[in-house]
Each structure stands twice: as C-alpha cells, then as structure tokens.
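Entry:
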Amino acid sequence: MYALLLLAAAVLGCGGCSDDGGRSDDAPNADAGGQDAGFSDAAASAPLSVRWTSSPMPTAAIDPATTTVSSVMLHIDQLQVIGDAGEPDATTAMGLALSWSQNFGPADTQFSAAPPALYSKVKIIIGQAGQSAPAIDIMGTIDLGGATPELFRVKTNADTSLQVSGYTAQLQPSGTANLEVVFDLSEALRTVDIASLPHANGIYTLDDSQGAAMNAFLGNLDAAFQRPGL
C-alpha cells in the first residue's frame, strides 16, 4: 500500500463550515502565528481570513511503495479572494511564503479591509519571479525496499495560476466570512515515478530540468486545490 501524507490547506473562519466551503460569523479571533496541523475552531480577527492547515489522509492504493510527504514550501506571488464588491485590492495578498510540516502550518492570511460582499472564488498564483528559491519545494521519503526509506524532492521555479470556484461566502457588515480550500498533493504526486528520478547526494529529485515529468506534475496541481467535499 502507498501511504501518502495529505497536506491540506484551508481557508477557514469561525463557526461551522458550509457544504461549499464558505463560512460566516460575527465572533472575533486573535489567531496570528503558525499553528498546529489540523483545523482550528478559532474565529477570524479580520473580516476575511485564509487559514492554512494540514491533516493526514487515508492510505491510498497508488503504488506498492510507501511514500510520506514531510514538508511543503509554497511561494505565492498573489492570493486573491474574489467577491462582487468590485474592490480586488482589498482582498489581495502578495508575496506569501507558506510552509507545512507534519505538525505545523503557516499563519492565517487576513484581509482587514475586505468589504461586505458575496465571495465566490479564490485565485492563487504560485511563483517566485526573480528569486532563486523554488516556487514549490516538496520533501519526503519513499520506501523502495532498502534498509531505510529514501529521500525525494520535487522543486520548481515555474509560475502556476489556479482558481477555486463555487463558494457562497457572504461577508456582512461588522461580520466575518471565510472560504476553505483543501490542498491535496496526492493526484499531482501520482504522476511522479520517484524511483526513476535522478539520484544524487542521497536524494531522488524532480526539477525543471526534467521538462516532461515536471509538466505532468504541474498539470495536476489544479486538482490539488479544491473546495471541501469534492
């Protein structure tokens, strides 16, 4: 069996979550720094918040090997929550560096000037223009039958634009609202034949020098960002 750790990213707020991943409430929240993996019940301190968390996924029968994702770094060039108020600057964050490990996730991304509106989409542009650090950097281990698991890494400087639609999160005056985006790498990683990757310094690595393999991975990233329940 192939045991793959799901790293889920979520845009959460306060109260209970609706079927379409949007939630709204009037209670405040003081959550700021990094947080434990798993969803929090803390409410949002800003009118609109993006909460990034992670949780394990069930074992999936993908490959005979056992694979675990131990950390993920995403550089987000632009994160925008899209509503019907016509004020995109108020719900856009630029230059985010988000990291996950098995027990820790990044702090909330908050929009303190978000106007009352019906928010229906989340736009994510992953990129690191002009920087040497990868836009996406994934580390993990795979059991290839040896005495100990082998290390692997997937890293790219490619820009990737994604959009998650179908929300109905209503932000009322003096209230809070949220959207939840579940980040699941399993579909994208299914395209990677880790054992066939170049192996150097004890690490199997997929990077931008392997065009076809990297394009297959990036082509499945849109499936990695979904509304809950899909």
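The chain has one domain: 22-226.
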